[in-house]
Design goal:
The chain is of the alpha/beta class and 300 residues long. Strand 4, helix 7 and strand 5 form a beta-alpha-beta unit. It is built from eleven helices and nine strands. It has an eight-stranded parallel beta barrel, surrounded by five helices. It binds (3S,4R)-3-hydroxy-2-oxopiperidin-4-yl beta-D-xylopyranoside (XIL). (3S,4R)-3-hydroxy-2-oxopiperidin-4-yl beta-D-xylopyranoside (XIL) binds next to loops. The site of (3S,4R)-3-hydroxy-2-oxopiperidin-4-yl beta-D-xylopyranoside (XIL) has 6 residues, from loops. It catalyses: Endohydrolysis of (1->4)-beta-D-xylosidic linkages in xylans. This is Beta-xylanase. GO terms for molecular function: endo-1,4-beta-xylanase activity. Belongs to the glycosyl hydrolase 10 (cellulase F) family.
């Protein structure tokens, strides 16, 4: 196959990218993105601050730009993200307790209702586990509403759009030996055993020297899948852009039937949230295919 999306489709998978609404006028960007990818995640436009800038007043202008570009070009969309400690609007940052809990529920309902039946999978909860060795929850205003906030978010989401797959998404849960990975694993196992609705786990997979790719990545993917959830690689970037590491990531996903797709977090190096100089993506800042691109295409 000659594109990432078509190559991924050969095994029933997808290959996606993050899309930024403000770049949709850049024809080099849209040409590459349209040609290569068959799944789209809005890089920022469906986050809480973007979609509910004032409590109860929803704004889908930029989210819809990304959504419409994707669907008009035959691509599916992952929704990102409904409940998160970051990129909360100011009004939400100031809430706590029961009013924050209700605001979270109202936000999930408002956004999922707008996109009802249109989203392949939602990152319902993002980055709720703590870094370091505790294996426990991250302290946040949402966590302080009560430990059950994650399952409340998932139950609310299932009722709001039964057609969407519901994912838990996080970073540094790719290394099987890390406490954070085990914390999330135990939560998913608990949710499955108690019937809390969860369909997928997103491994963000931002690899760098502090949190490098580890050869136990395949074990992590297999272990989550064995709990009865799909696994998706949701925000892949590799600082330095190692072609070998990119191939390893693809091979690990392809080794697990329930690893259903891979999304890279941007198109060209110049589009990366990490800065162009970290060269973490598959196309260089001039839009040329890199060695990592060829490596991924050959592995798919
Ligand atoms: C990043 C975006 O790429 C940036 O444009 C924005 O300034 C900050 O957020 N984990 C996530 C993503 O779940 O939403 C983040 O995206 C990267 C880390």
């Amino acid at each position: 196959e000659s594109t990432l999306g078509a190559a991924a489709q050969q095994t029933g998978r997808y290959f996606g990218t993050a899309i930024a609404a403000q770049k949709l006028g850049d024809s080099q960007y849209t040409t590459i993105a349209n040609r290569e990818f068959d799944m789209v995640t809005a890089e920022n436009e469906m986050k809480i601050d973007a979609t509910e800038p004032n409590r109860g007043q929803f704004n889908f202008t930029n989210g819809d730009r990304v959504y419409n570009w994707a669907v008009q070009n035959g691509k599916r969309v992952r929704g990102h993200t409904l409940a998160w400690h970051n990129q909360q609007p100011g009004w939400m940052q100031q809430l706590s307790g029961g009013s924050l809990r209700q605001a979270m529920i109202d936000h999930i309902n408002g956004v999922m209702n707008h996109y009802k039946g249109k989203i392949y999978a939602w990152d319902v909860v993002n980055e709720a586990y703590a870094d370091g060795n505790s294996g426990g929850r991250r302290d946040s205003n949402l966590q302080r509403t009560g430990n059950d906030w994650i399952e409340v978010a998932f139950r609310t989401a299932r009722a709001a759009d039964p057609a969407a797959k519901l994912c838990y998404n996080d970073y540094n849960i790719d290394n099987w030996n890390w406490a954070k990975t085990q914390g999330v694993y135990n939560m998913v196992r608990d949710f499955k055993s108690r019937g809390v609705p969860i369909d997928c786990v997103g491994l963000q997979s931002h690899f760098n020297s502090q949190s490098p790719y580890n050869s136990n990545y395949r074990t992590t993917i297999q272990s989550f899948a064995a709990l009865g959830v799909d696994v998706q690689i949701t925000e892949l970037d590799i600082q330095g852009g190692s072609a070998t590491t990119y191939a390893n990531v693809v091979n690990d996903c392809l080794a697990v039937p329930r690893c259903t797709g891979i999304t890279v977090w941007g198109v060209r190096d110049s589009d990366s949230w990490l800065g162009a100089n970290t060269v973490p993506l598959l196309f260089d800042s001039n839009g040329n295919k890199k060695a990592a691109y060829t490596s991924v295409l050959n592995a798919l």
